[in-house]
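Training component of the fellowship. As part of building independent skills, the fellow (R.M.) carried out the full modelling exercise for a liganded target. The chosen ligand was zinc ion. The inputs are recorded below so that the supervisory panel can assess the work.
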Amino acid sequence: MSLLKVVQAIYRDAGYQCRLLAEVIYPRRCAVCANEIDTGYFCESCRKSFALGKFVAQAEALDTVLMLYKYQRELQTAIQNIKFAGQKDLLPLLKEEAWLALETDMGSFLANFDVITCVPTSPERKKERGFDVPQEIFGFLADGRWQADLLKRVRNTTPLFDLDPSLRRQEVAGCFQVQGSVLGKRVLICDDIFTTGSTMSEGALALRMAGARSVSGLAFTASKDNW
Ligand SMILES: [Zn+2]
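Fellow's submitted model of the complex:
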């Protein structure tokens, strides 16, 4: 681990510790109803309106995709604030939400994989933000199977949200390179938002070409078309 990474990790943890300390005086509150909570971003009852917990079989190059939450309202705003307003103190709360969703029966899904990785943010955007959102949200999966940098972006892509699905495919074609061996492995790719799945599927394609036996996806949130 580089010194920069160590400093970043300490800084992040310090931010989270400060938040926990502040919560002694100002308790954490559900982002929807403002009821007091201990963990995550929502209270149990509000979480239900965001929970998706949906498995999708075969999405292009992906065998299965598990979608944890609906990309809507307060959760959508939180992700946008993290990405575009630098509000990274929300990340640990969303990480807890991911953990809460996977802790249930869905957790057995994780047992199906030899390698777990995530869709990499472009180096430019990562440099701007100082962090990689999927890595931060799913970093708790960091057991021996976690290989955060397995996929490398070898080509810049323009933001996809304005493009229609066929153009998205073209835009991401060949944008990933696999770093490391995945021969015969069952790989899981994590991402923060699943829209048309073109980016995740492109990652899956690269992994299959590199010899992966199977590739599936795990999305923290999914856009409305997937519900
Ligand atoms: Zn609530």
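The panel noted the following from the submitted structure. The longest strand covers residues 51-59. The beta strands are 51-59, 62-70, 115-118, 151-153, 176-178, 186-194, 214-222.
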